[in-house]
Design a protein that fits this description.
The chain is mainly α. It has one domain. Helices cover 67% and strands 3% of the residues. It contains five helices and two strands, in the order ααββααα. Strands 1-2 form a two-stranded antiparallel sheet. Strand 1 and strand 2 form a beta hairpin. Helix 2 crosses helix 5 and helix 4 runs antiparallel to helix 5. The longest helix is centred in the middle third of the chain and has 25 residues. The protein is globular and about 40 Å long.
Length: 142
C-alpha cells in the first residue's frame, strides 16, 4: 500500500486482506497464454488486452456518453478499432484471408464479452476469452 496505494483501483484495495491486483491477473493471463496458445494467438491475445483494453478505457472516459451497464459504447468502439489494428499487424497461424476473418470475428465477440460484468478481473478474462474463441473458430472453419 505504501508503494502502490495511489495507483490501485478501489476494488483492489482490500484493507488487510491479501487480494490480487489487476497486475497479478495480467501476469497470470500472460503465463497461461504462453503455455496454452500457439505463439501467434498468444501474442494477439496479450496485445488485445494491453492496447485494446487501455484504449477502451480512454475512449470511454473521454467520449463515453452511451452507457452499457458500467461501460460505454464509445469505449467498446475504441476497443474494437484498436483490436482491428492489432489483428491486421500481427502474424497469424496461416497466411489465409479466412484466418483474418476468424480473427476479426473473435475480436468482435471479445468486444461484446468485455461488456459483461464478471467477478474475475478482465486482465485475465479478455486474453483467455480471445485465445480460446480464436482457437475454437480456427479449428471449426480452417
Amino acid at each position: 500500500m505504501k508503494i502502490f496505494g495511489n495507483i490501485l483501483r478501489s476494488h483492489e484495495v482490500g484493507g488487510k486482506k491479501t487480494i490480487f491486483t489487476g497486475g497479478t491477473y495480467l501476469v497470470l493471463a500472460f503465463l497461461m497464454c504462453v503455455i496454452v496458445f500457439p505463439k501467434p494467438v498468444a501474442v494477439m491475445s496479450m496485445l488485445v488486452l494491453v492496447f485494446s483494453d487501455t484504449f477502451a478505457a480512454f475512449s470511454g472516459k473521454i467520449f463515453g456518453k452511451t452507457k452499457i451497464g458500467n461501460k460505454t459504447l464509445e469505449g467498446s468502439i475504441g476497443f474494437f478499432i484498436s483490436g482491428i489494428i492489432i489483428v491486421l499487424l500481427t502474424p497469424k497461424i496461416t497466411d489465409t484471408n479466412s484466418e483474418l476473418i476468424i480473427a476479426t470475428i473473435t475480436l468482435f465477440l471479445t468486444t461484446a464479452f468485455e461488456l459483461i460484468p464478471l467477478k474475475i478481473d478482465d486482465n485475465f478474462t479478455i486474453p483467455m476469452f480471445f485465445g480460446i474463441t480464436y482457437l475454437i473458430l480456427f479449428n471449426l472453419f480452417l
